[in-house]
Structure formats: C-alpha cells, structure tokens
Give the backbone structure.
Amino acid sequence: MHIGMVGTGYVGLVSGVCFAEFGHTVICVDKDEGKINSLKNGDIPIYEPGLEELLKRQIDAGRIKFTTDISEAVKGAQAVFIAVGTPSRRYCRDADLSYVYGAAREIAENLEGYTVVVNKSTVPVGTGREVERIMREEAPDADFNVASNPEFLREGAAIDDFMRPDRVVVGTCTSRAQDVMSEVYRPLYLNKTPIVFTKRETAEIIKYAANAFLATKITFINEIADLCEKVGADVQQVARGIGIDGRIGSKFLNAGPGYGGSCFPKDTLALTRAGQKYGAPQRIVEAVISANEDRKARMADKIIAACGGDVRGKKIGILGVAFKPNTDDMRDAPALTIIPILQQAGAEVLAYDPAAMNSAKELISDVSWQDNAYDVANGSDVVAIMTEWNEFRALDLKRIRSEMSGNIIVDLRNIYNADEMLDMGFHYISIGR
C-alpha cells in the first residue's frame, strides 16, 4: 500500500518507519526542511533505541521517503495519517488542534481517489468529526473517510510496541474505511493481534481513558508508598502482593517521584477538560493530576529533609533527568520541578543523564552538567537517583562512596537494596520502604 504520513515528530516518524517495515511504501511529509534533509540521510532528531538502524534499512530498501511537499505524500495514497503535534495551550491548557486542522485542509486539497484520512495524533473526542467537516468544506467532491487510530507507544520501547502491540484500535464509521485499515495492519493478523474496530468517538476516548488509568495506578502506588513510610511497611512488597491479583496486574505499580512525559500529563488534563465540556466531571482523574503535581515538589522536600532540612551551600548530584529511561524527553519530567526547588533552597546541583542533557540544558539553568555518574558524585554531599537508567543499576558503589563528600543517597526509583546500601556506609533513603 501507499501510505502518507503528515508529521515526522515522535509518533509520525516511528509509525512511518514501522509501516515501511511492514512492507508498505511510506512518504513522510513535514514543513521543517532541515529535519527532512536529516531524515533523508538517516539521521533522526529524537532518541529512541533501534529507530535509526530501522530507518536506514527502510531507506536502503526504498520503502520510505521524506519530503516537504504534501501533495507527494497524499496523491495516490490509500491511507494518509495525521501525526502532528497537539500541545496544550499555554493559558487554558486545552489541546491545540490548529496543526491537525491545518493538515486536514492541506490533505483535502491534494486528495486523489478514495483515501482514508486517519487521526494518529492524540486528540479530544469529537476531533474526527470536525476534521471531516473541515475537509468536506474544503473539498466537497473528494472521496474519503476519516478514521481514528490512536497510538499506544511507550517512549524507549516504541518499535516493539508498534510491531507487537497489545491491540490496535481503529474508529471508523464505514466498512470501506475498515477494509483499508485492515489492509494497513494486515501483517499484524499473522501475530493474532487484536484489532478493535469502533466508532470514531469511542476510539478517541479509549486513548485518553487508557493513559488516565495508567496515570492513576502510578499515583495510587505513590500515595501508598507515603503510607508505607509512615508505618514501616515496604511498598515494593505491597505492589507485588496486589499486582499478582489478575484484576489489578503488576505493571505501573512502581513507586517514584511522579509521572511525566509527553502523554500522561497532557492526556489526563484533556480528559478532565472533556468531562467539564460535556457535563461529565472526571473527578478521579482531576485528583490524580493534583496529587502528581504535589508529589514532584515533595520529592525535592524529601532530598532537603535528608540533609537535615537545609541544603544551603551543599552539592547535590542528580542521576537522570529524563522523565523515564531510554528517552531524551524532558516534557513534564519531575526533574523540572525538583531541581529548581533545590536551587532556590541554596543547593549547587550537578547532574548527568545518558540522553537528555541537551534537552535539559534548554529548560534548566545553572546546573553543572557532568560526563558520567562518578563525576556527579565527586564532591557531592548527596546523590539523588531520579531516572532508572540501566547504567545506574550497577554502579561501582565503593567508588561512588569514595568520590562523595557526604554519604547520603536518595533513591527515588528504589533500584538498590536498602540493607546492602547501609552496609556500605551510605545513609540510604528510598521511596515507601
């Protein structure tokens, strides 16, 4: 099949490359000429394990191309995916759909033959209906249908999530569009991947409901961790004890400094906005958002408390600033809240992250960026583990201890054994243990 992909951000690029791996011919379009030139050379603008190698393989095979000309991507395509950004508006924090609607207009102007136009971007319920209205207004005689196909890609594991998904959700109102989408995802039928066909509005809500539920699980176990600390229980054992229950499941029950990233903060907020708009308040999700924001600030307080309540003049080393490992994404990362609070309290902050430092430098000022974990530890009174990168799981702890001026480790990801850390002479503080 010939597939057009409008937008080469995280979702558009991963989806385009993986569709090419399926055997489809994919043409990706973006207005950023510099980005397109880089992609033509096989250079990717994001950190995602395995993506650059897969992209170069598809370029060599001639199954993927990049252009700034939208007509090249749309004309003759059986399916055109809209994968542009939907950032929260600065003041009201509603999803900004201007890029989606702009793409819809340009697609409508270039349609050739029957085409399924697919919203891949994460959009509020009702967006598919509005996209169709805009396109019919722009090209009343064009032959097309609009579908919703939300993405469920985890940063750091996006290729595996696309190639071996738990499910594929497609919202469409015609059998003709359903047939096209079935062909798009035909390679997954071999793996017996569940493909769920629904109405457009249902598919749009599924995306937000899924992310809001996972964010709720994270926030729930974080609050349980607080209770564990007060009574002397172990949150990791609590998580295991409840996670074995098939009705609950073990995933997303790791206590930490709060969720962040490109999806959960934006999508939980969008779901609450939809609830307000349609008179169906999402009170649980509203509480989740509030609790998560509070938690990030309280993690800074936890580090300050570990220093006896005063960090003025102290060196605090931070290991990891990305919101999760295997990504350079800093959007709503807990570090963006925690580090400024420490600085305002008078601390000097040293930090290292394997992938996110360039992104972080644009968002956090006055941080001494280091080349590795041991340079962070050098002269530090405290070292705080903020992101659970694999390289932080097997540190030479004797070297860390010898490099530090103090002996305090604040492990906000619970990656070390408390008894072993105490035996090595650390004053070790973790979450919910």
